[in-house]
Design brief:
This protein has about 280 residues and is mostly helical. Helix content is about 70%, strand content about 5%.
Length: about 280
């Protein structure tokens, strides 16, 4: 089935649905959901109500999926894997809550945003609460913690850098700056998801590096596709999407062949071709 985005850019429906793609980690994803829900709980109000609202406003769970797939590709999913997966989802959720305050957005995932539902103060504090609880989850694993702290710092840098793109003189300078920004804002978290999954199963440094390279390219293509869907940075995104799709798929060739590797391959195609 062929669809159309703005400016008549063709899109092709992927052969598999997301649920089909992630079937190799169905059991592990159920474990994650239980662990994530338990971790979100708060004994106080109104934080408890906000956390329940956050739990029920779920997205695709793409970031924890990357953690789980990377771990299962290179070892066996364990409690540290679940902690890492919960960490990235909590950090991602916190950034979205804070973004909605900054952007004054009333909607998130077809629901009222936390900011709209509970107010600006509650949104800021609940985002901070998620970040603090996330850090506590992996405080006993220095390697994963350092990886994630570098990433959260880069995400903040990317947000601030975004305002400088308009000041670029040439198209090549604008493209370079754009890739730098989306790498920091989006791709480095995807990279860290894959690295954390590998680190949680004590993968070798070489394998951690290889799966991290996949995550970085995957994250860039994911944001390129997002921008095409949102009709932003159209010229750059249209030109670079096939380049980074190929880079991501090529990154998988050096990793162990299995049904999980195939799932990562199919997930790459799904994200490169998705329409929402």
């Amino acid at each position: 089935m062929i669809g159309q985005t703005c400016n008549n850019i063709p899109t092709f429906a992927p052969v598999k649905s997301l649920q089909q793609i992630i079937s190799p980690i169905a059991a592990e994803l159920a474990q994650f959901e239980a662990f994530f829900g338990k971790t979100l709980q708060s004994d106080t109000e109104p934080m408890g109500s906000i956390m329940r609202y956050v739990r029920d406003s779920r997205g695709k769970r793409l970031r924890p999926i990357l953690v789980l797939l990377s771990a299962k590709l290179l070892g066996k999913v364990n409690e540290q894997t679940l902690r890492a997966a919960t960490f990235v989802e909590m950090v991602h959720t916190a950034t979205l809550i804070h973004d909605d305050v900054v952007d004054n957005s009333d909607m998130r995932r077809s629901k009222a945003s936390v900011k709209s539902q509970f107010g600006n103060l509650s949104a800021v504090l609940s985002g901070d609460y998620l970040l603090a609880k996330a850090m506590m989850l992996i405080s006993n694993d220095t390697d994963i913690l350092n990886e994630m702290l570098r990433t959260t710092a880069a995400m903040s840098e990317g947000e601030l850098m975004q305002s400088l793109v308009a000041d670029c003189v040439s198209q090549s300078e604008k493209t370079t700056k754009y890739i730098d920004i989306i790498t920091r804002k989006t791709a480095m978290l995807m990279r860290s998801c894959c690295a954390a999954g590998a680190l949680s199963v004590q993968a070798t440094p070489k394998l951690v590096q290889q799966i991290s390279a996949f995550g970085l390219n995957f994250g860039i293509l994911f944001q390129l596709r997002d921008d095409l869907i949102d009709c932003e940075n159209m010229e750059i995104a249209k030109a670079l999407l096939p380049v980074y799709s190929e880079k991501a798929l090529h990154s998988l060739e050096s990793l162990p062949l299995s049904e999980v590797n195939k799932a990562l391959h199919d997930l790459t195609l799904f994200c490169a071709e998705r329409e929402e």
